[in-house]
Amino acid sequence: MKCLAVLILAVMTGSAGAFRVEPALAVARALEVSDAAFAAELRADAAARTVAAADAALFPTLSVSASAAYRSSVPEFSITIPVPGLTPMVLAPDIREVYATGLRMQQVLFSGGAVTGARRAARHELEAGRQIAAQIRADVRLQALSVYWSAVRAGAALRAAEAQERRAQRLHTDAGALDDAGMATPADLAAARERIASATVQRIRTAALSDNAHAQLRSLLHLDPGTPIELADSLDGPLPPLPESLESLQDHALRSRPELAASRSRVRVLEARRAIAGAGSWPSLSAVTQWDYSRPNQRYFPTEDAWNDSWSVGIVGAWNVFDGGKARADARSLEAAARGAARDLAELQRLVLLEVETAHRDLCSAIATIAAAEAALDAAGQRQRQTGDRFAAGLAAIADQLDAEAQLQAAEGMVIDAHSGAWIASARLERAVGR
Q: Which of 62, 108, 376, 422 is deepest in the core (most CB within 10 A)?
């Protein structure tokens, strides 16, 4: 509901027919419509059901049975008692129709750790599933922010390319005026036309990149292909803040990264399964209660074609004395797998620390380059204007003006890359830290 309200507000505040997007909205919408995030939540929910199934082993089981059968005829077995007036006693009558019902309740008393191990493994599987879902959500957040700021960058690059094309057209106009005054050569006019053509090519390519960036953003947010997008940000706004110290960010990452939590849970799952495998070497003990109501009831002697009930209460023990070494081999296999998972966890911790360090350096570098890039843009702009004025007055060669235009174009690109790179680096650092 919160995301829906944000979407409605975004549409209302956007221009007519445009879908207004800002970073928070892009993240919320991407998380809401992401099939990958939804699938991860379903897998975590399935793991929660597995926990309930494992806990069910703590409770007694109750089974109800019923059967009916028609059997072939067999000779009756009877004995004759040598007493006048007594008929022969039928010990095994010819009963063709057999019916039976029963209730059986069984409670596990001791399983060698199998039940406890299964419950622990299920809970660690659940935790791993939840952390994997959190990891996928974090990936979706990073993707949404990266695509959003890439679209902002593409828009800024398109505006810069359009400005370059307009400057090239002005250069061609100035060259034509100088030619009319006899102060330009045909080579100067050809250079001006080449500049227009090059700027047009750059503008077309940049427009295609901008359209592709908007298409990626629409696809990520599950918007209709024809929906126009209005971006709330430009690269003229505030910059992301400088990051905290590297040590504090790395400590936070080791505590908060869902990949690390999921890896720890996998180690615990393997340890719990090792306990389950080792339980095969121990005896098991269960309490059993049975109630039968059948016709005939075989516990009644002599057998008669009549309904009778009977019951029993007892203890059932079992011990697999020899299994060829299977239980021990399974336990050792899982123990080795757990050790391997622990080493994988250590390697993942190393990679996380490196990722945080790299992302921290990238953000600091991106922010530090912005001032230099803006200074270069300011100087390149002044040179381009001054050279343009001198060229229009016939005091500078067109080569000087073309060189000034090229430097201005390069400086504009540096500023665009620095600003957009800072925001993308900030998003990557947040993802690396686990926030």
A: 422
